[in-house]
Design a protein that fits this description.
The chain is mainly alpha-helical and 144 residues long. It has 6 helices and no strands. The chain has helices at 9-40, 46-55, 63-80, 86-99, 109-120, 122-137.
Length: 144
Amino acid sequence: MSVNPSTDPAITRLQEIRPELLRLHKALLDSERIVYEQSHGPIANSGEFFRLVIEDPAFDWLRPISKFIVQIDELLDLRKKDAVEPESAAILLEKARLMLKPNEHSSTPLGEHYFQAIQRDPNIALMHADIAQKLRSQSPPAGR
């Protein structure tokens, strides 16, 4: 069963969160680039940086966020065709809330590295706080 995409509150929330996730992702990439260059020397150009982001293990932890943003884009593209299941957007919002949980002792590289990025970069900490607050305030009521 599809839902009218213009009235689905979860779709609207995803549309509002997506640009913020993109800004956070860029800030994380920039921060990780600085860490990488401190260990390995300057990255020659944006093409080399792109190659590193795709291939180098130092950037592996960022790939789940990249893939997640693609999932959002795919869902929002389906919305244009009026073929979105009502729960799909809500599931992605919950996934965002769970994914963006920094944890110093995480069992996943994303949680641990995300924690470190928040600790070293106040801009990332502020972005995280803003997105986390919006995701919390947009969670569906319990029992729903």
